[in-house]
């Protein structure tokens, strides 16, 4: 068996690009590297800037676990663009508002709290209304379960899950 090797061709040199004054652009790029590296410094931010950051306020929705349990509700595919940002927290967009929902575990059972990120105080009421609409808070799941389980006894087994 005879193998043929292709002859290696030399790579063409890149075209010479010049500015309107005739100066090669490559020399302009290399001369600005020192200013670019000084512009993007690796210095740590000043502590004054870090201390000014405010922790977002959490507001509870006063929900029982039977009405909304985030670890069972959000991963099931009903909230496609929401991301799990901690084990019991999910963050997503409702309308034009960035919202975090967190499942709280307290002595009274469980509850869900929300936080609006970068929402002006004047828009808080509209944002809360949009969130409650998104979560269908006008529908009581406990009442639905009572009605459904009265019609179908098999649902009583699922209620305990």
How is this structure best described in words?
- The longest helix is centred in the N-terminal third of the chain and has 15 residues, at about 25-40.
- The radius of gyration is 30 Å and the shape is elongated.
- The chain has six helices and five strands; from the N terminus they run ααβαββββααα.
- It has a five-stranded antiparallel beta sheet.
- The protein has a domain at about 60-160: TATA-Binding Protein (2-Layer Sandwich).
- A hairpin with a 2-residue loop joins strand 4 (about 95-105) and strand 5.
- With about 160 residues, the protein is α+β, with helices and mostly antiparallel strands.
- Helices cover about 30% and strands about 20% of the residues.
- Keywords: DNA damage, DNA repair, Glycosidase, Hydrolase, Lyase.
- This is 8-oxoguanine DNA glycosylase N-terminal domain-containing protein.
- One of its GO terms (molecular function) is lyase activity.
């Amino acid at each position: 068996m005879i193998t043929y090797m292709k002859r290696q061709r030399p790579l063409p040199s890149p075209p010479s690009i010049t500015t309107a004054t005739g100066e090669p652009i490559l020399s302009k790029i290399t001369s600005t590297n020192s200013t670019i590296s000084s512009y993007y410094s690796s210095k740590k931010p000043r502590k004054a800037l870090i201390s000014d950051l405010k922790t977002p306020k959490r507001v509870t929705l006063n929900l029982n676990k039977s009405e909304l349990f985030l670890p069972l509700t959000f991963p099931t595919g009903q909230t496609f663009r929401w991301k799990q940002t901690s084990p019991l927290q999910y963050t997503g967009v409702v309308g034009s508002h960035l919202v975090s929902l967190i499942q709280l575990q307290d002595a009274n059972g469980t509850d869900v709290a929300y936080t609006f990120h970068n929402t002006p105080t004047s828009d808080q009421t509209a944002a809360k209304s949009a969130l409650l609409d998104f979560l269908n808070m006008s529908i009581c799941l406990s009442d639905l379960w009572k009605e459904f389980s009265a019609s179908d006894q098999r649902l009583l087994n699922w209620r305990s899950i």
